[in-house]
Amino acid sequence: MQGTQHNPNEIRALSVGKWFDPLISVAIIATLYLLFYKTPITDVYLTLLIVLVTSAYLFASELTRAGWKFKDRPQQRIGDMLDRTFTKFYGVLVGILFIFFAVWLFPAYEHVTNLGRLEEATVPFLAFIIPVSFFVILMTELILGEKRDGTYQLGLLARGRIRQIDWKIFFDGTREWLLRCFFLLINFYAGVWYLSNLRAYGLPDTTGNFVEFITRLDLAIFGMIIFAILPGYIFASRLIGTELRKVDRTWFGWAINFSCYPPLNAAVFGGWVGYRPPSEMIELYQGLPAWAYHTMASLPILYVVGGAIIFFALIHLWGEAIMGVRSANISSRGIITTGLFRFTKHPIYVSKCFQWAFIFFPVLNAIGFLDAIQSGILFLLVCAIYAGRALGEEKLLATDETYVKYALYMDDKSVFAFVGRLFPIMTFRWRYEYWKKNGQLQY
Q: Is 246 helix (H, G, I), strand (E, B) or coil?
C-alpha cells in the first residue's frame, strides 16, 4: 500500500463527471433566469422550469456517454420485466407519498409561505415526474435488466409482497428516500427564496456600491448552487449511472450532516458554535458586513477580500455543479475525480470554510482578547464539523475500489499533500489501513 502509484490520466478516467458539465448547467440556470425574471411567471413556476430544464440537460448528457450502449441486452421475459417496472414505480409513489407525509407531520415544514409554495408546485411537478419516472424505469428494466434495489423493495411493500422483501436493501432504500425527502424540500424552498430575492432586489450592479455588489453577487452564486444540486434530489437512474450505490448507516454520519442544515443548524451554528458577530458588534458595524467594516480603511484590501469571497463562492459553485445530478449526502452515486477534485478531495467544504473566514473575520468579531480567542475557537469547531463530514464520507467510500485509488493518489498529489507528509495520521492511507485493521468499513 505504501508504494501505490497511479497515473494522473488513469485517475481522471475514473471520474463519472465531466469538467464542462458545471459550465453548461450554470449557463442554463443563468439564461433561463435572465429570460423570465421580468415576466409574470411566478417564483415557484420559474424554479420548476429552471430545475426541470437543467435536469433534462444533465440526463441527456449522461445518456450520451452511458456504457450500456455497447453491451448486449439481457434475455428476459416481458412479463417479468413489466412486473419489476410496476413494482419499482409503486416504490417511487411510496417515496413521493412519504415526502408529503413528512410535510404534514413535522412542524419544521409547516411554514405558511413554504406550504403555499409547495402546494403551487405539486400539480405541475407530479404531472412531469410521474410519467417520466415510469418511462425511465421501464427503459432501464428493458435495457439493463433486473436489479432489486431499495425502490423495488418499497414497491414490494406497497404491493403487499412482504415475504419477498430483502430487509437490508429495504432499509437502505428507506434511508435513500429519507435523504431525498429532506434535501429536496429544503433546497426547493431555498431555491424559490433566492429567486424571489433576486427578482425583488435585482441583479448585482457593477456600477454601484462595491460592498453591495459583492453581497448581491455572493447571494446570486449561492442561488445557482441550489439550482445546480436540485436535479440530484429529484431523480436517480441506473440508466445513466446516477443510482444510489451506497448509503451511510451510521448515526455519526447522519447526525453531523443534518446538523449543518435547517432546522438543526440554527441550534448548532446559531448557538453552540455561534462564531458570527454578536449584537453589539453588529450595532457597531452600522449596516456593513463584517468583512467590509474591517477593511474599509484600505480600498485595496477591501477589493482583495471582496474578490476572495467571490473566488471561494465560485469554487463552491463549481464543486456542487459538477456533482449535479449525482448530488447526494452521506451516500455514494459515483466518484468525481476531475475539475476541482483534482486538487482536493473536498473542494466544497474547503471553499465554504475559507469563504466564511473572509466574510465574518471570526477573531475580529469580538470585544476584548478573551472574546476574540473564543470566537476563533468556535470557528475552528465549525471547520471541524465539516472535517467530520469529510471523514465520514471517506469511511463510507473506502470500500469502493475507484475511490480508494483516487484517495491514495490524492495523498501524494493534492494541494494539501504536504500536511500528510508532516503528519501521516492525516493521510487517507493511514485511515484506510486503520479502518480495515479494526473492521470498521461499511460493506
A: strand
